[in-house]
Specification:
This protein is an alpha/beta fold. It is 46% helix and 13% strand. The protein folds into two domains: 9-183 and 226-252, 3-Layer(aba) Sandwich (Rossmann fold); 184-224, no CATH class. The structure holds NADP nicotinamide-adenine-dinucleotide phosphate.
Length: 260
């Protein structure tokens, strides 16, 4: 299906692997001129042919550099995908395991990165009549699952998308959210990443943890989400096919979220 994205420009944050990398691939295949932002450039990212801007997106300077670098490469953005996020260091433990500094770090990556990127990119997005897709999490809807700083940062991100859709929809900029459930990325399967740390703390393997999560969250498809499945929803929301979708939160979670 032609998504009508050919020749349009995009910046995808957190794009060296996982959902961000899959999104870069999908948008590039749809004919977009894509700039990918991350701290590192993986061989898989290079293979996509996307332009790359290396930046630490947990800082204001990093975000500013990524957006201005992208605009220098491709001009005004038609699409901003705020995908960067996830675990920052050890995310094991309940509420009392996180002091103010840890809350700030986790909010910097999962919430303020998007606030800052949107602020920087808005003038160009308005000129282009572009759109924004924020990658939140089903954790925003089930915050008790934790880690609390992560799920509440994602809840704030989801709320931000809804608020900005109200303000900027009338100015021709759509803002939507995609909320994945557990997705097969390094967040879960990498040896040193969050899933591995949680599994180690519980004395089980990552495979056992994934099986337990599938059962506990009642993932009806019986497996984690694939990154490409999130990427295709992002591409749809960015496309003219979704011209009347604004302020929405699309859940991609294999049926975790039960609606009446
Ligand atoms: N996987 C899941 O189960 C799941 C579920 C719900 C929501 N999500 C959300 O989906 C998004 C993507 O998650 P993912 O699982 O694809 O993550 P991932 O596989 O861990 O990839 C994270 C990406 O972000 C980049 N990154 C991390 N910290 C960065 C920083 N400070 N500055 C710049 N780039 C940074 C990483 O690249 P570098 O290391 O090269 O910088 C990498 O490209 C996140 O917002 C996450 O919260 C994921």
């Amino acid at each position: 299906m032609d998504l009508g994205l050919g020749g349009k420009t995009a910046l995808v944050t957190g794009a060296s692997r996982g959902i961000g990398l899959a999104t870069v691939r999908t948008l590039t295949e749809a004919g977009m001129k894509v700039v990918a932002a991350a701290r590192t450039t993986t061989p898989e990212l290079t293979e996509t042919g996307a332009a790359v801007v290396n930046a630490d997106l947990s800082t204001l300077e990093g975000v500013r550099g990524a957006v201005s670098g992208a605009e220098e490469l491709v001009g005004d953005l038609d699409l901003l995908v705020n995908n960067v996020g996830g675990a920052v260091g050890d995310m094991v433990g309940g509420f009392e395991a996180f002091d103010d500094d840890r809350w700030q770090e986790i909010f910097d990556l999962n919430f303020f990165s998007a606030v800052r990127a949107i602020r920087c990119a808005l003038p160009g997005l308005k000129r282009a009549g572009g759109s924004i897709v924020n990658v939140s999490s089903i954790g925003a809807r089930i915050p008790g699952e934790g880690p609390h700083p992560y799920t509440t940062a994602k809840a704030a991100l989801t709320a931000l998308g809804s608020a900005l859709a109200e303000q900027y929809g009338p100015q021709g900029v759509r803002v939507n959210t995609v909320s994945p459930g557990p997705t097969r990325t390094s967040l879960w399967v990498g040896d040193s990443e969050a899933g591995a740390r949680v599994a180690a703390a519980r004395g089980i393997t990552v495979d056992e943890l994934v099986k337990e999560v599938i059962g506990r969250l009642r993932i009806t498809t019986g497996r984690p989400v694939e990154p490409t499945e999130v990427a295709s929803v992002i591409a749809f929301l960015a496309s003219p096919l979704a011209a009347s979708v604004n302020g929405a939160d699309y859940v991609v979670d294999g049926g975790v979220t039960k609606a009446a």
